[in-house]
């Protein structure tokens, strides 16, 4: 993690010296990433996606830091997340991506939140509520241009202009979502842009939004009126085929509980999936899959083999996992680290340096998004910068 002289705080209830894992969160880097994305957005407003507890770092910390940097619009997945964001951003525009659940319109109105409407039923319910309140409340409309997940179909989008219900509320945003923007040459990008352009042309005057983190970096990027970065804000690489332009936001350290030597032909961990071919020194860390560190990072094989598995940095040296990740513990092979440089209660790096969130995800056979959003509640959380 980058060192800063700005304010540092532990906002968790777990003291650092009592925690098995220590999560470092750099709010200055978060704000810097937002400003960098804003500068790439071609004049479009740059919102922030803070769903999934701000990708694991905490809505109550991320939203104020992003607001202080200049962000005025936020996207969440659930209504409960929107209410949390509203508490710390009383003047912000807040959209809820996962649609309008039946019967929740009064809550949206109470907290001045905007649903993202993605079906005829949702449009009808929101319009009916607005008519009953005699107030044209704001909402976004989501058109699906290829994801086949949420949103109106393209044919439905093209006939929106004929829907009487649109007179009952204010359509503050027309949006869609890229399928594969991180693949800059994927033909789906151009197909989605073309479909979205046609719908946008049929609804003149309504602000439009398509690019996510990776979409901001497309060669023929359609900036429109608003961009919606998420993963890149938190240090994830929006351009996987090139160097990461983002600053790291999250670092994770784990505490060594015990060190031991094991003899040749001994195994480590549940089911004996890792075999020592010679005498090896094993360190056991007080972090496991209950803390959100994926079990799929387990090392199953023999000492000395090149395995696609987890890795830790110990005294500046890369050390491979040994055996299965268990609920509360991870075992690593520290044989090549001088004994004088590693001892009980030391901390080792699980995320940081060359172990970026993308690399950790790759080694677990998943993606960095999953690593971030699973960050556990048992870590001591150390915040640097931002609002402290």
TrEMBL record:
GO MF terms held by the record: alanine racemase activity
A UniProt-annotated Pfam family: Ala_racemase_N
Catalytic reaction list: L-alanine = D-alanine
Gene3D superfamilies noted in UniProt: Alanine racemase, Lyase, Ornithine Decarboxylase, Chain A, domain 1
Signal sequence range: none
Residues bound to substrate: 149, 327
Top EC class, one word: isomerase
EC number: 5.1.1.1
Span of domain Alanine racemase C-terminal: 249-384
Residue ranges that the Swiss-Prot or TrEMBL entry lists as coiled coil: none
Active site, per annotation: 51, 270
Alphabetical keyword list: Isomerase, Pyridoxal phosphate
Pathways involved: Amino-acid biosynthesis; D-alanine biosynthesis; D-alanine from L-alanine: step 1/1
Cofactor: pyridoxal 5'-phosphate
Chain positions with N6-(pyridoxal phosphate)lysine modification: 51
Family of the protein in this entry: Belongs to the alanine racemase family.
Alphabetical list of PANTHER family matching this protein: ALANINE RACEMASE, ALANINE RACEMASE, CATABOLIC-RELATED
Primary role: Catalyzes the interconversion of L-alanine and D-alanine. May also act on other amino acids.
Classification via NCBIfam families: alr
UniProt name for this protein: Alanine racemase
Organism: Microvirga terrestris
Organism placement in taxonomy: Bacteria, Pseudomonadati, Pseudomonadota, Alphaproteobacteria, Hyphomicrobiales
């Amino acid at each position: 993690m980058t060192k800063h002289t700005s304010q540092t705080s532990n906002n968790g209830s777990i003291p650092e010296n009592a925690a098995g894992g220590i999560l470092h969160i750099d709010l200055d880097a978060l704000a810097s990433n937002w400003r960098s994305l804003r500068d790439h957005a071609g004049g479009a407003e740059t919102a922030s996606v803070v769903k999934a507890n701000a990708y694991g770092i905490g809505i109550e910390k991320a939203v104020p830091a992003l607001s202080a940097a200049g962000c005025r619009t936020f996207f969440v997945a659930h209504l409960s997340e929107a209410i949390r964001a509203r508490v710390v951003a009383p003047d912000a525009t807040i959209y809820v991506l996962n649609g309008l659940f039946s019967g929740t319109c009064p809550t949206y109105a109470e907290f001045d939140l905007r649903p993202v409407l993605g079906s005829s039923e949702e449009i009808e319910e929101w319009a009916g509520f607005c008519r009953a309140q005699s107030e044209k409340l704001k909402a976004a409309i989501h058109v699906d241009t290829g994801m086949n997940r949420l949103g109106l179909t393209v044919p439905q989008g093209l006939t929106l202009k004929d829907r009487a219900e649109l007179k009952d509320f204010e359509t503050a945003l027309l949006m869609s979502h890229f399928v594969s923007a991180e693949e800059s040459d994927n033909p789906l990008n151009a197909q989605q842009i073309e479909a979205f352009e046609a719908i946008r042309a049929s609804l003149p005057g309504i602000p439009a939004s398509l690019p996510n983190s990776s979409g901001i970096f497309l060669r023929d990027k359609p900036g429109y009126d608003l961009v919606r970065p998420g993963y890149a804000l938190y240090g994830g690489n929006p351009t996987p085929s090139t160097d990461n332009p983002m600053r790291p936001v999250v670092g994770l350290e784990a505490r060594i509980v015990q060190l031991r030597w094991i003899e040749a032909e001994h195994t480590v961990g549940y089911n004996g999936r890792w075999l020592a071919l010679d005498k090896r020194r094993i360190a056991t860390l007080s972090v496991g899959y209950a803390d959100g560190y994926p079990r799929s990072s387990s090392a199953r094989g023999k000492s000395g083999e090149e395995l696609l598995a987890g890795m830790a940095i110990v005294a500046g040296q890369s050390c491979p996992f040994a055996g299965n990740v268990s609920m509360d513990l991870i075992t690593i092979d520290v044989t090549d680290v001088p004994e004088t440089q590693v001892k009980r209660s030391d901390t080792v790096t699980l995320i940081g340096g060359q172990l970026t969130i993308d690399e950790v995800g790759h080694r677990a056979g998943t993606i960095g998004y999953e690593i971030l959003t699973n960050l556990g509640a048992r870590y001591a959380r150390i915040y640097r910068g931002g609002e402290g």
